[in-house]
Amino acid sequence: MGDGNSAYGKKKFKRSRSHFADRITADGRDGWPVTEGRYRLVACRACPWASRAVISRRLLGLEDALSMGIVDPIQDDRSWRFTLDADGRDPVLGIRFLSEAYDARETGYPGGVSVPAIVDVPSGQLVTNDFQQITLDLATEWTALHREGAPDLYPERLRDEIDDVMHGVYEDLNNGVYRAGFATNQKDYEEACTAVFHRLEWLSKRLAGQRYLVGDTITEADIRLFTTLVRFDPVYHGHFKCNRWKLAEDPVLWAYVRDLFQTPGFGDTVDFDHIKRHYYEVHTGINPTGIVPLGPELAGWLSAHGREELGGHPFGDGTPPGPVRPGEEVPASGRP
């Protein structure tokens, strides 16, 4: 995420490349074969990049194969902390700070500690923090461990189009809101903010006549767009000054994001309390008082969206995921 995988300051915002880019694959070519129960996903529900992996894991039914730890949305100078767990330790890894897994992999690593991270449980070492690749591999390399009825989130016949759509969304919107929010001069801010809304307008036109971004089922492209849109009104509109208009003021995008929110695997992973507290309390350079706003009201997320009229099948020939696993539920404080 931005706080652990980017560079702020007086220069233009620049997101760093993932330093640990090993892949967990079916053939184990990087030394990390897909193995049930061997790895642990560490995520923060506040982070859009980590939330992609949380959603993918749930949609694909990988809960038994890939355990998950959730860190506190508020970091300290040691970065991500397991203070939500008993005794302040991750119950599987036995560590207090995610940085311990980074240190186990590379002592004295000078870069930031970011989520999502996948850790090798036997050795305690970080395997990868490559947020762009993790979800693609969950969809394509972990197929032997997918649940029955799991959707194909990265169908081969649509990959070129998915990649093209995701590239534009990443540059202008996923990362663009950060470039606007952390801009330190008017020119950089205006360029980034303008690109954000040009992309939103493009998306609104595209989604006016089709239920999902690419094809007639949910794909990786929808997951990556959702994790930014669900944060737009609560944090990006005010905190990052992306305030030309609210998402709720665009009928198409507001209906689209509510459709996904109400789809099993999406909204049931979202913690609005974590999202708001992280951005407003951690980014002290932008919000020095640390005050977390009361709004916006959340009840609208559960209102009818009408997107079924566009057709499409969320899970293709598959089925929705089952109920959220005990212990992985979002607390009532974070739900509409």
Automatic annotation (TrEMBL):
Residues 309-336 are annotated as: Disordered. It comes from the Bacteria. Gene3D superfamilies: 1.20.1050.10, Glutaredoxin. Residues 155-282 form the GST C-terminal domain. SUPFAM superfamilies: GST C-terminal domain-like (SSF47616), Thioredoxin-like (SSF52833). This is Glutathione S-transferase C-terminal domain-containing protein.
